[in-house]
Fold:
Amino acid sequence: MSKADTLLSIEGLTIGFAVRRKINTVVDHISLEVKKGEILGIVGESGSGKTVTGLAVMGLLPTSAIILSGRIHFLGKNLLTMEEKELRRLRGGEISMVFQDSMTSFNPLLTIGAQVEEMIRLHSKHTREEYRALTLEALMEVGLTEALEIYNRYPHQLSGGMRQRAMIAMAMIAGPKLVIADEPTTALDVTTQGKILQLLKKMNDKYGTSMVLISHDLKVIQSICDRAIVMKDGRIVESGMAKELFIHPKTKYTRQLVASAPVLFSKSNGEVKETSYNTHNEEQKEILTIEKLNVYYSEKAVGLFGKKGRKQVIKDVTISVKQGETLGIVGESGSGKSTLAKAIVGLNKEIEGVININNDDAKSRLVSMSKPQMVFQDPFGSLNPTKKIGWILEEPLKLQTNLSKKERIARVNEMIQQVGLTSEYLERYPFQLSGGQRQRAAIAAALIVKPKLVILDEPVSSLDVTIQAQILHLLKELQKKHNLTYIFISHDLNVIFQMCNRVCVIYRGEIVEMKEAKELLYRPQHEYTKELLKSAMVLKT
Amino acid sequence: MKVWMKYTVKKFISLVISLLFTSIVTFTAFQVIPGDGALSALGMDATEKQLEEYREEMGLNKSLPIRYINWLKDALKGDFGYSSQYQMKVSALISGRLNVTLWLAVLSFLLIIVVSIPIGILSARQNDGTLDVLITLLTQVFMSVPPFFLGLLITLIFGIILKWFTPGNYIDPGENFRMFIRFMMFPAIAVAVPKTAMTIKFLRSSLLREMELDYVRTARSKGMANISILFRHILKNALIPVITILAMMLADILAGSILVEQVFNLPGLGRLLVSSIANRDYAVVQAIVLYIASVVIIINFLVDLIYQWIDPRVKRD
Amino acid sequence: MIKPNGNTYSFNYVLGLSITSLVLLIVLIGFFYTPYDPNKMNVALKNSPPSLRHLLGTDNFGRDILSRVMKGAGTTYIIAVAIVFIGASLGTIVGAFTGYFGGWLDEVIMRLNDVLTSFPSILLALVFVSIFGPGSYNIIFALGVLFIPSYARVVRSEFVVLKERDFVKNAELMGAGSLRIMFVHILPNTKRVLIPALLIGFNNAVLAEAGLSFLGLGVQPPEASLGRMLAEAQSYLLDSPWYAIAPGLMITLTVLGFSLISGGLENEQG
Structure:
């Protein structure tokens, strides 16, 4: 490795945020290099300092951030001591950035064309017609074939995938040497994710542009990176060739990260691990049957002359769920899976069809099995922010049982311990808990009335990988202990295969395939299922 | 049909409907008020026969919808009846007063815009600098001064102590236009100061909110200078909520700044309204209420058009 | 000043607290003690400038201005509190029901609300007073009713957002009734916007009362109120300018103090 190969080098970079006259260090003495033409992956959970590192290179740190020590050299020049004018020439011209959320990262009032074009206007001199031609060419290049039309569109008129393509066009148009992509696919559906990653790879191949790909998702890093770095709490814990790093992880933390995505890696290794599927019995009786369910969503009439629309979100769904099993429902965002969940528990009123919940043994005054309970995706949203955890857990008991105050408190204390928290947490407000603790509390609130059927709507999607694994483990434990039946809804195939006995694939409101989990994994029938599986398993060894 | 035309036509139709609706409500409301229209027009010592003739002549014994249609026909022709208080046509009475109110509105609205936009931008750019802290505190102080107290202070300082104008001595524009404007500047300042302060506060916080957004970071990542980002990207976004406030203020001052007119002894619409209410001169009150309602509705219509012009997201619905 | 969580309060917030405490103290003392009888006339002393005996001078009837400001501010405050109480409590109920249930009734009430709030509020108060006649009780009633729409709007928009949140869905699942969901689960979550709205509402009520009394439609003589005093002072601006300054400053300080506090609270919550 000669010096001449190095495009970017960071040495001993330490960044802190000033909070109440104290400094919280978020990046701690990190050093790394990016060579010409390579793609470097930085993987880590939220709070690991990976995004801050990316922003520091761009000189886009928020004002509360302080660079405490270190150097960032780009082609031999220190970016941290460079004059603002020179830095502005580099930004966009030499180093550009692709952001996570393409909706908020574009100005809503300007057309896509104007915003992409602005980049070359800032970094080169051409005539108006040339600017326009170059912009159209750049849009075509990223696969926006209707470039002429896209040029005049506003951000909200494009899909997430198209916006992200436009963002890549914007990052590439001035011919930078380095592109920093910060979670470029996180906001997208699985099927789109793969295409965007391939586009980045194509740009790297074609122009030799170096890239830094920042992601929390191993499979993203694995798919296109040459080398990778694992960050945790502001430090680099491990680095190496991307292909090697995750197959033979050296540190405990990396192993943990890898372990949280078992299906993906076990399949790639050619050996199928029997991921702790619940043994499930054919003879179990059915706890829930749904026949020919249609769910509608009525659009609000707008203005005086607006027509009241009615959109069908779920079409002809027929499902049965057996006692003790976990039925997975997998689909992308907008496929209708959350609507289905809400319809099952009775939160959605505009339905046709039959939903039968079997609760013949609701005798004990504790078992109020009339309704299944639900755990929501975002525990911050599902716990009332103005109430203490204790109050939140007690409320369902107040409403559904006639237990005395003392009995209720005993029940609440028992429940909070079952989800792995202590009684101290009962006195806290949701905002005083971490994401994982909040989800534990939400699970406790759902289970406290001893339901038999629990619907889990993306219960781990808002959590970091290591926390995800803990929560999934807890859910399995509780299922065994209380003989619970789960309907597990997720967009994440890895999580689905870890948890479920049977899986339905839902696409545009219809169930396109329903099978035993293993069957689905190895013998998918429907085209859409194949596509979904393909995009989740990009690892090729 | 193009999207914007469809939108405009839709908004225009709802403008017309709102105006009609308002006229019905206003008309009905004043019909319901207890009291005999004929009696209040002719006075207590009119005979029953005179009253009957008057009712016949004015169409007062017809049914409500017919009376409304007749009234609307007259109103569209600019005839709002007769003022019992001033013994003259309501239309003539109002147009004289409207002139004063319009001038006051134009002067104070210009002051608001010319002063608040630059100061708001300056304050936001300096966020939490000494100048910003000072501006923020001053806007709070000026927002807290009631306009009529401010009017009294202005009269005291500029009228009585400095003698830049003669308090209470309103000059008719037909008489001496320069002196009229000079006199009107002082009430205009009294109207404008609290509203300017409010606009500054609003614009500042809107700008600061926008500066935190992702698209600003994107613009910086392109290597754009901060000042260009402010004018090319942030300002337009930040002005969207400010326009609503400005429109409400415009409606407010076009309705006549009653208190300030009172302090400066201006013969404007606001004072006419107060005296008409005090003397139960309902023909005048009705006409003024209708005028104000129309101003409010028309301004809302214009704001909708401005929104669709600057914000592409509006047309979606 | 240090808050429980270790952050410091902003300068403006502390200033607002100090001003408000001072103003409240003056008003509070005024309920029990004033240097002179606020309504006692003394022709010999009329229009005398501030002195040691009469700290803020006397008015055209020789009444002590300090005493009248103390009493008058008290009257203004009581009226303002009553107005806000009527407006906020009824407005909260209307906003909660329309926001939570939606539907055509919501449409109708909100359209009505739009119409009412787009009118300059002093005008509506004028029309109201013209029908019911002037006086303190009438303006409490008139302004109280006129304040309903703004609170209804604030509470409604919070309810519209909050009712879609998962914790409300969760409460529905648990089997909580609509009233319990509205007032036990959702309402406490609106305090973030409701408390600043109460403070600002108080300010608007003080200004509205002062305005109406200034036009002679509010508190009737001989009772003192800040707006009433300013109206009287206008005629004597030439001879005794101090007469206008005292009540005017009192209004300004009241409004300033509360809006600084409310601004501080809003910043706090980001």
Observations:
- The domain at 11-269 of chain C is CATH 1.10.3720.10 (MetI-like fold).
